Amino acid sequence: KYMRKTGSIVVSLLLVTSLIAQQNHRFLLGFEFSGATVSGQLSENWSVRQDISPYSGYSMYTSSVNNVSSIAYFGIKPELTFNRNRLSVASGVRFTQLDSYLSGGINDEYFFLRYKSDASATEYARVKTLSETVHYLSIPLELKYVPIQISNVGIYGKIGTEAGIKLNSKKAIEFISESMKPYGEEILNTTQVNPNNMYSTFYGAIGVRWESLRGTHVNLEWLLPSRFLTQNNLTQITPGKFSGFQLSVLFPFHKKK
């Protein structure tokens, strides 16, 4: 399903690019850095004892647990500009890290996690933190337009999508009681659900671009609330939207003719 979504977006961007491509263009090599918060709903993959309703993943609390989830990435992204630097298309490679931390709520040092339930007994562990980190490698495709240009400063809008694969993932648990430490791996393995091997998003941004006399671009942009096209990229929550900031620096390979 997500492949159809991603494919449709990619084809649309490529068609738009082919229609506006001109010979008067520039080629730049960019390096991007970004950080964003992730919101979503608490997953049922982990048997947290309390009755918890859906909540936002960042700075939002229930009476028993708190989840903080984030996304950060670094990318190398060549960019081709057209129409006197007003329009550009970019693609490349991006390394993404997703992090999720589950801990006790505002007034709680820990939460209870069920790790055994059978006819004889139900057992819970007092957990201080449950963390997860997932790494993905993806290929983005972006289209950017600069409607406002004043001297060497421009304001732009951008849409993009990306598709990628999982490189690795890891989980960790910290207990209130040190005596539970030897059982950490066993408790982590009580859930057999793993993060999705595929990864895809659709996003938009508004940014400010500064261009030096030598043609170097420095961009600062706000990532608008954007969506995951794939599901289960984290096991603690079901990621819904993400929003944050991105800084990128682009160096020209060829001067404009």
Write a brief structural summary:
This protein is mainly β. Helices cover 9% and strands 60% of the residues.
Give a verbal description of the structure:
With 257 residues, the chain is mostly beta strands. It is built from two helices and ten strands, in the order αβββββββαβββ. Strands 1, 2, 3, 4, 5, 6, 7, 8, 9 and 10 form a ten-stranded antiparallel sheet that branches. Residues 51-63 have low confidence and may be disordered.
Write out key terms for the chains shown.
257 residues, mainly beta, 10-stranded antiparallel β-sheet, 10 strands, elongated
Report the strand count: 10
Count of DSSP-assigned helices: 2
Structural class assignment:
mainly beta
> Largest sheet at a glance?
10 strands, antiparallel
Computed Rg: 22 Å
Helices and strands in order, then pairings?
Blueprint: H1 2-20, E1 26-42, E2 65-82, E3 87-91, E4 93-104, E5 111-117, E6 122-150, E7 153-175, H2 184-188, E8 198-211, E9 217-228, E10 237-252
Antiparallel strand pairs: 1-2, 1-10, 2-3, 2-4, 3-6, 4-6, 5-6, 6-7, 7-8, 8-9, 9-10
